[in-house]
Amino acid sequence: MLKFTCPYCGIVASETELSAGGEAHLKRYGPGASDEDFEEYLFLRKNPKGVHLERWRHAMGCGKWFLAARHTATLEVFGTYPAQSHEPPTEILEKIRAKYPEALR
Ligand SMILES: [Zn+2]
């Protein structure tokens, strides 16, 4: 079973206590954006068999959104971090690069 440590309350929560929120770090473009940029923001998502950065909500706990780095095939979790982050913390990136150097390019 998939388990994440909530970065806010520190509880190790199983998948059944969480709500998935899709891909993390989506770039939202400004009012002058092209139709292609807006389409990408609204509809186009990565769906890798491999390392993925995702949004999750601790629905049955503190209720806060957080971000997680995990492998979609092995369910290996590299870490969780606050939803306000623009990119994963360095220690999470180092864990990912050590095991999957080709990921997140
Ligand atoms: Zn929590």
From TrEMBL:
GO biological process, one term: tetrahydrofolate metabolic process
Superkingdom in the source lineage: Bacteria
GO molecular function: sarcosine oxidase activity
Protein name stated in the entry: Sarcosine oxidase subunit delta
